[in-house]
């Protein structure tokens, strides 16, 4: 008996889908603010005050008010000295009645003689001018700085899982046929 046996092997089909991952990291928010330093200046412009009145006065260059005051004082002093001398001479003349005849010749001799003068030698001026400087400068600093803040962001991810599909591409089979040779 002639038989024909045909077999077909089974085949498995596999389909895969790869996994997918897309990941992004967005930038965080950052803010920076710089505070500038400050310089505060408080000042009064300098002035130089020079008072030369004393050296000028010593050199004979006095203001008119000072010269007038000095001569007025000198005149007053000389007037008082003159009055005192006249009173002295008058009192002396009054003593003539007391039989003091030498008073008149003494007064005449005293008034006829010149006064003795003294002279001094000095370098002028002997004092220095007064020099005053006014004004000031104050500097104050206010330090600056930096203010900053940072806010991070979460990462963004897109994920699709992979998958494997297994199926039967071809089922196994066995065929047995009878072959008839008589024909």
Elements, N to C (H/E): EEEEEHHHEEEEE
Q: Report the sheet with the most strands, covering strand number, pairing sense and barrel closure.
A: 2 strands, antiparallel
Main sheet: strand order? 1-10
Radius of gyration (CA) equals 67 Å
List how many beta strands DSSP finds: 10
Shape: rod-shaped
How many individual helices? 3
Report the span from N to C terminus.
14 Å
Mean pLDDT: 87
Strand content: 35-45%
Structural class assignment: alpha+beta
Overall helicity: 25-40%
The stretches of 5 or more residues where confidence is low (pLDDT under 50) are: none
Summarize this, please?
The protein is of the alpha+beta class and 183 residues long. Helix content is 26%, strand content 43%.
Describe what this molecule looks like in 3D.
This protein is an alpha+beta fold and 183 residues long. It has three helices and ten strands. It has helices at residues 53-58, 64-94, 103-112, and strands at residues 3-8, 11-17, 20-24, 29-35, 38-51, 130-142, 145-151, 156-160, 163-170, 173-178. The strands form five sheets. It has a two-stranded antiparallel sheet with strand order 1-10. Strands 2-9 form a two-stranded antiparallel ribbon. The radius of gyration is 67 Å and the shape is rod-shaped. It starts with a strand and ends in a 5-residue tail after the last strand. The mean pLDDT is 87.
